[in-house]
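pls design
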C-alpha cells in the first residue's frame, strides 16, 4: 500500500499537536503530500445575544482561531513538504469524510488521549462513525504520556 496523500484531522485539543507532528513526519518520510483538515463546527458558532455577538461574528471568531491553529501547525512541517489546508463547515465526522473523498486521501491521521481507547478520538462521539465509514486506513496516534 502506498500513501501519497495523508490527511490529518486537527482541532484545539492537546493531542492534536502530537498527532499532527506524527502525520507530517510520516508524510515527509514517504514523500507524500499532507493535508490538515480543521472543521468549523457551526453548532459552536451560535453567538451570544446577551453579549451582543451575532452568529456571523461567532463564526468569524471560529474561522480566525482555525486559521491561527493551521498557521501554528504549519511550523511543525519539514521545509518543502507539500501541505494543503481544508476548512469545511459542518458536523466534524461528515466533513472529514467529505474531504477524504474529495481530496482522495490515502490515510487519515487522528489523535487520541489513550484514556478511553479509540472511541475518545479527537472527534469525540463521532469517532466510531468516522472509523466505520472512512474509505482509507486510519492511523490513531496516542497522546504522549497518556
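designed seq:
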Amino acid at each position: 500500500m502506498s500513501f501519497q496523500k495523508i490527511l490529518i484531522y486537527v482541532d484545539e485539543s492537546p493531542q492534536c499537536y502530537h498527532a499532527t507532528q506524527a502525520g507530517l513526519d510520516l508524510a515527509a518520510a514517504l514523500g507524500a503530500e499532507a493535508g490538515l483538515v480543521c472543521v468549523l463546527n457551526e453548532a459552536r458558532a451560535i453567538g451570544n445575544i446577551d453579549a451582543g455577538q451575532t452568529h456571523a461574528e461567532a463564526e468569524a471568531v471560529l474561522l480566525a482561531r482555525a486559521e491561527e491553529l493551521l498557521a501554528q501547525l504549519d511550523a511543525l512541517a519539514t521545509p518543502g513538504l507539500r501541505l494543503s489546508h481544508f476548512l469545511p463547515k459542518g458536523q466534524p465526522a461528515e466533513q472529514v469524510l467529505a474531504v477524504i473523498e474529495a481530496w482522495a486521501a490515502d490515510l487519515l491521521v487522528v489523535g487520541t488521549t489513550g484514556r478511553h481507547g479509540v472511541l475518545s478520538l479527537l472527534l469525540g462521539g463521532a469517532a466510531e462513525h468516522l472509523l466505520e465509514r472512512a474509505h482509507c486506513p486510519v492511523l490513531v496516534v496516542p497522546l504522549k504520556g497518556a
